[in-house]
Amino acid sequence: MMMKWVGALSVLLSVPAGPIAAAEAARPAVELYRLDCGTIAVKNLGEFSDTYLYSGETKTLVASCYLIRNGEQLLLWDTGLDGDLAGTSKDSDGYVNSLKERIVPQLSRIGLKPDDIDFIGLSHYHFDHIGQAADFPEATLLIGKKDFDVAKVWKPAQARLAPWVSGRSKVRELTGDSDVFGDGKVTVLSLPGHTEGHQALLVRLASGPVLLSGDQYHFADQIKNRGVPAFNTDRAETLASMDRFDRIAENLHAKIIIQHDPADVAKLPIFPQAAR
Questions:
Q1: Phi, psi angle pair for 144, to nearest 5°
Q2: What is the pLDDT of residues 164-177, one digit of tens each?
Q3: Whether the Cβ atoms of residue 191 and residue 163 lie closer than 8 Å to each other
Q4: Considering only CA atoms, which of 70, 35, 45, 34 is closest in space to residue 255?
Q5: What is the spatial order of strands in the sheet that 31-35 belongs to?
Q6: Neighbours of 133 (CB within 10 A)
Q7: In the predicted model, what is the mean pLDDT of the chain?
Q8: If residue 92 lies in a helix (H) or strand (E), which one and from where to where?
Q9: How far apart are the C-alpha atoms of 24 and 47, rounded to whole Å?
């Protein structure tokens, strides 16, 4: 009896996993595109550290956003500066904001229309991350619940997120980490502190994981110096989220992309090429 069982087991183990392997191989790889969503010249970098670390300094940052393609499904992560700024610059509240081109015409160069976007994921509700969200009203909004609570009552965010605040468009209010497509390839990470419901994004490419920072950090120097912006909503939560972000990056050997740091954004291929 034992010999028959062993023999049967050996037969099972010897059967090639051809159909399964073929199905796995046929799954399309996740693609990550970086989009140009603006430039921000900061006149007073001092407000990016509540310990006066950057007092008297200036810095030019980028307002980047990203398209993630997972098979037939599409996620737009953050939506940059206001679209009406396209082709111009505006001096406002200590920042000079510039935008070359809206997101929609950029996407058209890879054959996509606004209605093709399934999800818009927002790291948080600040103006430089939600500026063009309303160009994609058919998309389901992925936003931290506490951030959406603020957006519903704070006029600058109300206007920019009108399709979802009004109830006309679908919202998924997140209270923790969320697997966007249900296959483990793209995960929204709950990292509060910069805002009440701040989020980052983990994208598992075939070439290795990528972490899109949201505003967990604004430039690489903050990782080493733990520069907590004076305008963050909670200092303790910010530091805890920095620790979690760093540990995730280390444990997964992930490539960090600090979304406002031009050097970090340049780690990804130039649009319309994609990282895979």
A1: -60, 135
A2: 999 999 999 999 99
A3: no
A4: 34
A5: 31-35, 65-70, 73-77, 119-121, 140-144, 171-174
A6: 28
A7: 92
A8: strand 88-92
A9: 48
